[in-house]
From TrEMBL:
Sequence similarity: Belongs to the TrpF family.
Enzyme Commission identifier(s): 5.3.1.24
Sorted UniProt keywords: Amino-acid biosynthesis, Aromatic amino acid biosynthesis, Isomerase, Tryptophan biosynthesis
GO molecular function terms listed in the Swiss-Prot or TrEMBL record: phosphoribosylanthranilate isomerase activity
Stored InterPro entries: Aldolase_TIM, PRAI_dom, RibuloseP-bd_barrel, TrpF_fam
Organism: Glaciimonas soli
UniProt-recorded name of the protein: N-(5'-phosphoribosyl)anthranilate isomerase
Enzyme class: isomerase
SUPFAM superfamilies for the chain: Ribulose-phoshate binding barrel (SSF51366)
Pathway of action: Amino-acid biosynthesis; L-tryptophan biosynthesis; L-tryptophan from chorismate: step 3/5
Domain N-(5'phosphoribosyl) anthranilate isomerase (PRAI): 7-212
Catalytic activity: N-(5-phospho-beta-D-ribosyl)anthranilate = 1-(2-carboxyphenylamino)-1-deoxy-D-ribulose 5-phosphate
Length: 222
């Protein structure tokens, strides 16, 4: 069966970056609601940007340790399709916020040098069992802070049976996109720093080159 790797471009703050990402073929656009991030947007700003999205492109809201009330208030202003929990939230906290906001969510697991393949399998299992709104696992690199670091983790840790379901992130770039897709064969890839000219400001040429590389890797692997 042919596989089309879904592509999420995260940390969009400007109209022109949103339009370019969509025109280049992005499947999902991420908005960062973590105030400490240089890519932070207010819910009102996200709402203005989401209004510009055509149908069938997923608007993803990224949260780090936000309360359920904050998630609900954000969704009331900005019509997000999917939530991304990227902090220290427990299964119960993700489930409760997702239920309160009535949205499915993906959960980031940050992978470090001490992580083993069984940790990833258990993590995915716990979320699948713990929430009907759990839509998938995102794998990022464990760093100080929470994400958007531009750092890669060891992809060989990803168990073969988990790879087709995961969103691969952490330090993806134009340079390693082909390798990532051909080696891991993830469900989706998520990129922020690797397509920026500076934090929060995207680089159109990098967005186009990244998406083209993923599509080419799909074609060569199918
Ligand atoms: O983008 C951010 O600023 C951010 C802040 C806090 C948590 C996650 C964040 N971004 C996510 O981090 C990964 C990896 O990003 P990168 O490509 O290595 O820069 C990605 O899932 C972003 O959505």
């Amino acid at each position: 069966m042919t596989h089309r790797t879904r592509i999420k471009i995260c940390g969009i703050t400007r109209e022109q970056d949103l339009a370019e990402a969509v025109a280049a073929g992005a499947d999902a656009i991420g908005f960062v609601f973590y105030p400490k991030s240089p890519r932070y947007v207010t819910p009102q700003r996200a709402a203005e940007l989401i209004r510009l999205l055509p149908p069938f492109i997923t608007a993803v809201g990224l949260f780090v340790n936000a309360s359920a009330d904050e998630v609900v208030a954000t969704v009331q202003q900005a019509p997000l399709s999917l939530l991304q929990f990227h902090g220290d939230e427990t299964v119960a906290q993700c489930d409760s916020a997702a239920n309160a906001a009535n949205r499915p969510f993906i959960r980031a697991m940050r992978v470090g040098t001490a992580t083993v393949a069984d940790d990833l399998i258990k993590y995915a299992h716990d979320y699948r069992a713990g929430s009907r709104l759990f839509a998938g696992l995102l794998l990022d690199t464990l760093v100080d802070g929470y994400g958007g670091s531009g750092k890669v983790f060891d992809w060989s840790l990803i168990p073969k049976e988990l790879a087709p379901q995961v969103v691969l992130s952490g330090g993806l770039s134009v340079q390693n996109a082909t390798d990532a897709v051909v080696r891991v064969r993830p469900y989706a890839v998520d990129i922020s720093s690797g397509v920026e000219q500076s934090k929060g400001i995207k680089d159109v040429a990098k967005i186009r080159a990244f998406i083209a590389a993923v599509r080419q890797a799909d074609a060569s692997s199918n």
